[in-house]
Amino acid sequence: MLRRRFPEWFVLLLPAIIVIAAVVLIPLIFSLYSSFTPYKLTRPSTLWTWVGTYNYEKILTDAKFWAAFGRTVLFLTIVLNLELVLGLGIALLMNKVTWGQRTLRTILMFPMMFSPILVGFQFKFIFNDNIGLVNNALQSMGFNVALPWLVDGKLAMFSIIFAEVWMSTSVFAILILAGLFAMPRDPLEAAKVDGCTPWQSFRHITLPFLMPFIFIAMTIRSLDVARAYDIVQIMTGGGPARRTELLWTLMSRTGYVDARMGLANAMGYVSILLSIVFTIYFFHKLSAARAQIGMGG
Amino acid sequence: MKRMNILKALLASTSIVAAADSAMAQDWGSFDGVTIEAKLIGGEQYEGLYARIAEWEAATGATVDIISKKSHFEIDKEIKSDMAAGTTDWCVGSNHSSFAPQYEGLYVDLNDLVPAEVIAEFVPGIIGASTVGGELLMLPRAQFDVSVLYYLKSNYEDAEQAAAFEAEYGYPLTVPDTWEQVKDQAMFFADPPNFYGTQYAGKDEAIVGRFYEMVVAEGGNYLDEDNRPIFNSDAGQRALQWFVDLYEAGAVPAGTTSYVWDDLGQGFASGTVALNLDWPGWAGFFNDPEASQAAGNVGVAVQPMGSVTRTGWSGHHGFSVTNDCENKDAAASLVMFLTSEESQLAESAGGSLPTRTAVWEANIAAAEAGDDPFRAEALAAFAAGAEYAFAVPAIPEWGESTNLVFPELQAAIVGDKTVEEALNDAAEAVDELMRESGYY
Amino acid sequence: MDRNQTHRNRKRALKTLHFIALFATMSVICIPGLWIVLNSFRPTVEIMAKPPIWTPTFTLDHYRAMFSGAGEGGVPVFSYFRNSLIVSVVSTAIAILIGMSGGYAFARYRFKGKAGYFVGLMLFRAVPGVALSLPLFIVFAKVGIIDTHFGLILVYVALNVPFTIWLTDGFFRQIPKELHEAAEIDGCTRWQAFWKVEFPVARSGVASAAIFAFLTSWNEFALASQLTRSVGSKTMPVGLLDFTAEFTINWGGMCALAVLMIVPALILTFIVQKHLIAGLTFGGVKG
């Protein structure tokens, strides 16, 4: 019956579409609707009051929201680029290892075994200024300082970025390493014969070949970079004085602690748009890179 | 940890034995075949009490089904989500005095279900703090929280140091009785980064609560009768200045604005903080040689006073019964059981503070007669401190207002804004919130 | 001779440099994690000590407490472990099946709006967990699947399907069509041809998608904390918060539970390591 009405490809895709619709689409429609209401969790009847674009006007004219928005974009940009560079470096190092690679690769993936919430607690203690590991180590080495890692404007951003990079660089490293493994040897050998320096052959042969892998990693990471929320929430909660406030911490505080879900959902939509822009951007880059090395399709 | 546990277990078992006779005597009603669904706060400190539920089940024939057990803020989030989804047909929920006003219409007025003479056995102020708009929303368990001053005793035993202090500040070095003295001594003791004079909670509701009690101690208030923010008064500025001065002088850890309770407790337990205003839950931990380096060196005193009075921001845990509960009598019976004299004796044996007058008296008498001078000292300090306890305004907007205020307080402390600017900005934001909520 | 010598020296220097760099990298990766493992074996008084105690004392107290009864520091570890295992394994298996079928559709059929479907499916993965948690809760509450394994499994399947589609699509694409056509000529149905011919080739792609899906489900917190409530369904990341109370945190205990979370994941990763790299190599790039 089904087969006669729908083409085969659709039947094969159907389970995926159904699951995603049930889990993501329906809730998204609901939250889109509620972003046009003054919906307060503790007053369910407020769901039926239509306020139009009031919530959006409120957040779009709120300097604190824009500050958090800007900081989130900055955070994403720094984190993704840093993870890329470090991941590339680690992959190149690993690629040269000839012995015990399987074990080393497993160790490399060690941070991926950590739940984001655990990473948050972990770095909160490591960066504690009074009894944390980092300051203790510094003091034991003779520096008589207690750096306020989670308080100072720059250090606090550094700390949350460090935690996020620590957790996620492995994803980049492992994907780029896969790319290095797949690389044909011939062009590199040819380049050597032609007298290219290692840098030249890296720049003109290795890197272009790796580009698709890099953008795959970028896309995957930009998809779930919001997992950083758990980390930031526990480490600094967006503070002090909003110095590390990101869209996600602002949103969850507004939604759950203040119970203003309508307003929070409006923020949620802005953050979803942001994620989509990042993802589409990398998709675009990915297709371009694939085309460049003749793997388009 | 082990020794404390043995002590705890001993105390608990003796009080359970003592309670067993009266539990038999007290009639919890008969609810054969009834199942009560409960959402309870989880965490080591709170779990001991739940072991007693089996006793109630045996006495009444009912069963208790714990459908959720989560930490403090998680359970708050869950209950709010439940209200949003309309899934509120469970019966008994853990509650907290700071959260209770937010759950509008969720819980019944226990005045209708609990006999007046039972309610009268609780500390009146705590019943007052459990009442919102004339409705008694929760019955308090033995988890009453008010802060007193913990200090390292060794700092007051060094004659040379005492002389140096007196020469510098013009009065003898004794355990501080005012917040001004705390400030002086904190600056005097501080030797960053190895040792700090004091510390304070620096974010979320925690810092607003600490600021609030200081404002009241200085003679001001947070909101007026119409719920208008008035914390930007002179008293408020004096209060915030105290936090700023300590931070600027380096008398508190530089990370203090990122601390909440666990960081503070761990910091004092590391033996590197001289004076620490903290909660009763830590008393046992601080003096446990396996958990704390300060063990044996911890003194406990009533909280210092501001220029006007002593104050203690307080809160307490309790249990509530939902409006949608099918068998409210059974639910109320369970709540009464969990907050009964026997239950409170057992729970407070673990170190928490009771909310019943008789249990307070029994605990103090037992501590005085017992051979644990630290526990007696702590209990005496908390008994004195509890007299100045006040609860936060019983309005749903309390929590939300703290989210507007805390970043501003932090801004003043770390020097992004002046005290006056920060407080005015915060007051303006709270004013907008209160107007939006329709108070004036 | 001389040139050979300098050449050899340079090579040795490079090798040393490489070793040092690798060692430093691995240290940064390992130390914060090992610190957690170490803390789970140390008495609380040492973890937070100042001045720090660099030579640790070994104790199993945190583990002993964790496995003891409620009220003595115990948490229902076995239930959490079982829940995590059921939810992660089942959701991974289903996500792989559904994702594979989707990946096959993208790889083997031509249809209108293919790119659109593809990007669309991926984008659903981009919705942040915090934005999704409440609406999802309300929908699930109406259907009555809150606090069940089923609810959580459903969510994790949806989270993991897009990435699985992506990887398997790349795999099927590089398998020549002639292969299964030949099998069909030999009398296999399309279904049989798939399992006999195409699936074995795509196996490492499936393995790498599976390990990513498993790790995502095993560690996910934001949604699990909203959708689970009782001991019957709480997973290990949610269970970590059992070590926090209103004012206190039992860091040593939390580390002990964390170790129980990390070790199985690490072992699993080690076992599938070989397939993992091969899977990623051919999976993504030929898309």
TrEMBL record, chain A:
Pfam families: BPD_transp_1 (PF00528). InterPro entries: ABC_transporter_permease (IPR051393), MetI-like (IPR000515), MetI-like_sf (IPR035906). One of its GO terms (biological process) is transmembrane transport. Residues 69-282 form the ABC transmembrane type-1 domain. The chain crosses the membrane at residues 12-33, 73-94, 106-127, 155-181, 202-220, 266-283. Keywords: Cell membrane, Membrane, Transmembrane, Transmembrane helix, Transport. It is found in: Cell membrane. SUPFAM superfamilies: MetI-like. GO terms for cellular component: plasma membrane. It is a multi-pass membrane protein. It comes from the Bacteria. Belongs to the binding-protein-dependent transport system permease family. This is Trehalose transport system permease protein SugA. It comes from Octadecabacter ascidiaceicola. The lineage of its organism: Bacteria, Pseudomonadati, Pseudomonadota, Alphaproteobacteria, Rhodobacterales.
UniProtKB/TrEMBL annotation, chain B:
Keywords: Signal. Gene3D superfamilies: Periplasmic binding protein-like II. It is found in: Periplasm. The keyword Nuclease does not apply. GO terms for cellular component: periplasmic space. InterPro entries: Bact_solute-bd_prot1, SBP. SUPFAM superfamilies: Periplasmic binding protein-like II. Its main location: periplasm. Residues 1-25 form the signal peptide. It comes from the Bacteria. Pfam families: SBP_bac_1. The keyword Signal applies. PANTHER family: ARABINOSE-BINDING PROTEIN-RELATED (PTHR43649), DIACETYLCHITOBIOSE BINDING PROTEIN DASA (PTHR43649:SF12). Belongs to the bacterial solute-binding protein 1 family. This is Putative ABC transporter-binding protein.
From TrEMBL, chain C:
It is a multi-pass membrane protein. It comes from the Bacteria. GO terms for cellular component: plasma membrane. PROSITE patterns: ABC_TM1. PANTHER family: MALTOSE TRANSPORT SYSTEM PERMEASE-RELATED, MALTOSE_MALTODEXTRIN TRANSPORT SYSTEM PERMEASE PROTEIN MALG. Belongs to the binding-protein-dependent transport system permease family. MalFG subfamily. This is Maltose/maltodextrin transport system permease protein MalG. The lineage of its organism: Bacteria, Pseudomonadati, Pseudomonadota, Alphaproteobacteria, Rhodobacterales.
